[in-house]
Amino acid sequence: MSQLIEVMVGGHGPHKVFIVPIKGVIVDEGAAPSPLRGGARQTSARHFEVLGKRIRHDPLACGVLLRINSPGGMASASEDIFNEISRIRQKMPVVAYIENLGASGSYMAAVGADNIVAAKSAIVGSVGVILQRMDVSEALAKLGVKMESLTTGSLKDTTSMYRPLTDEDRKYLLNEIIEPAMKRFVTIVSSRRTAITEASWPEITTGKVFSAEHARQLGLVDQIGSFDTARDAMIEYAKTKNSGLTKDQISFVQLASKQSFLENFLGGMRANASLLEDLDEAVKTLTAPGLWYIWKL
Fold first, then answer.
1. Is 275 exposed, middle or buried (0-12, 13-18, 19+ CB in 10 A)?
2. How far is Cα 133 from Cα 110, in angstroms, rounded to an integer?
3. Which CATH architecture is the domain 4-129+203-294 placed in?
4. Of 86, 222, 226, 270, which residue is 20 to 30 A from 175 by alpha carbon distance?
5. Domain map of the chain by residue range?
6. Per residue in 223-277, pLDDT tens?
7. Separation CA 168–CA 162 (nearest Å)
8. Sheet arrangement for strand 72-74
């Protein structure tokens, strides 16, 4: 991984609030944002943990401001990011700003914060789980192709794309895989969002998304406002946590990957190809088997 450098984006004080983005699909592994890829179109849990560790060990760090625009992603990766945010919160305050979309796994990440601010036009929610598989058996049959699998049990190949799901498969996947993951999701949200009433849970757990105002009424977010609203809230949290700290002593910084001359040169050469590469990677990622905390249109 490239060396991380600090980029000051506001203020001039010695104490630092780190702005950390959660953008695009959340995955376990992924490339850190760089010119080679034309920017961040996904969030890697592993890269997020590296950023979190760097921030947690910075003696001048006084807060983290999450900037979220994500439909969620892999279940395990989303939980890993939530856990890292929880570790950060043990040392300093965290505020989450949902600027456009804070759904499913990215909403799980947001609940790790002390305060959630959503933009007026933001979409929030999608508390739910998806496990999907592609069934190509009929298409292959039309081509005269048949796939046969020898397994040691009737449930060994439940996610195989070469045969339809059976009732036994569906029961197993729902009871053993999907429902426990949903229970973890609800447990995480309920432990952090105490403003959510018992009466609101049936609507929240339908998996649908909500407008920012509806989300506020349900207790999913704390405030409706702009990025400045979230920034001001972050400053107040930092001042409360650090006695004597003033606004003028705080600066806002971002961590970026320092690129070599060669990486920057190649980044320019490959700029036109980056969109197609990202599209190909997104298709491969979203069709991979596994549990997802993700919102899909």
1. exposed
2. 28
3. Alpha-Beta Complex (3.90)
4. 86
5. 4-129+203-294
6. 999 999 999 999 999 999 999 999 999 999 999 987 654 455 555 555 455 555 5
7. 16
8. 42-44, 25-27, 72-74, 291-294, 130-131
